[in-house]
Input
Amino acid sequence: MRAVVTGGAGFIGSHLCERLIREGHDVVCVDNYVTSSPDNVEHLRDDRHFRLDERDVTEGLEVPGHVDAVFHLASPASPVDYLRLPLETLGAGSAGTWNALDLAAAKGARFLLASTSESYGDPQVHPQPESYWGSVNPVGPRSVYDEAKRFGEALTVAYRRHCGVDAKIVRIFNTFGPRMRADDGRAIPTFVGQALCGEPITVSGDGSQTRSLCYVDDLVDGLLRMLASDHGGPVNLGNPHEVSIFELAEWIRKLTRTTSEITLIPRPKDDPERRRPDITLARELLDWEPTTPVEQGLRDIITDFRHRLAARDVTERRNPALPSPPTASARS
Ligand code: NAD
Ligand code: UDP
Output
């Protein structure tokens, strides 16, 4: 198979490229590095089955030769990133998805959209099945991401229904693992960076909000199974293992054996209260479910951060989207 991976130098994208190469496929990785670095795929650079194409997907895709699959992952993905890149995020979800679908149509390739649990917004149904239409604020701060992804889903379905493209949608729930950026503002890399540097761990609100955490290798496996299937989706991919953010902070404190205390900071606006995927469909259609225990995944990202810290690679850990710690009471 010859696959195009947009956003291939990013966190999930780089793991996907690696897995595709390992399985003997050819990969064209397209990225403009707006939220990543070519360092993530440096180890693949010399492989003759791997090609790196620095390009903004909103400006069109040019891939000579045949293509069997297009994985569209290019988009800022963390709240900190999409809040500082609102127009770029809307562009990647709309024009970027359009260009990626056009490429798939022109090449007769399969197409997979990396959509998100944010399509459900701040969900009123728990856990979230694919049949739930969501609760999204179309003009809130997160709308640049949520609505771009929802538009991308509508576009993907239109290409499937009207243009004969074998186009698929997965909705990815919180995924973590090695190569996450220490300054991307997401809870796990932020907490791990803070814990390893002995800084206060910044839990927002009272930490009772929940997320469900999937290890990146499991997610990549789900992406490949979805591509190989005959189903269009949307299909949820995530780990139903749900934890509160306070529990997550405590867990990372324990695993890192840090002396860092937990400090409470204000919740960002429209921060979803709880999130857990219903993965019945993924189990039935793809025979997929996560197999990596969350604790093992946390140990892996902690090890990765330790190495990068030692190499002075982890530099900026402050989270610009969240207000700086106020007089909040430390809870631990
Ligand atoms: P990431 O920021 O590490 O990766 C995104 C990649 O897309 C980066 O390499 C970035 O440079 C690239 N990119 C962004 N805009 C681009 C453009 N216009 N042209 C070319 N490249 C561009 O984030 P990630 O966590 O790896 O997310 C990958 C995909 O998975 C995203 O589409 C995201 O919405 C989706 N997703 C991720 C999660 C998660 O928990 N990690 C959850 C839901 C959905
Ligand atoms: N969060 C937090 N402290 C941080 C970063 C995030 O308490 O330093 C919280 C955030 O408010 C949210 C949860 O952790 O309630 C998950 O945030 P993340 O950005 O990882 O993912 P998303 O909100 O996109 O699910």
Observations:
- The radius of gyration is 19 Å.
- Residues 6-7, 9-13, 31-36, 56-58, 73-77, 92, 96, 114, 116, 172, 174-175 surround nicotinamide-adenine-dinucleotide (ligand 1) (CB under 6 Å).
- The CA atoms of residues 32 and 55 lie 5 Å apart.
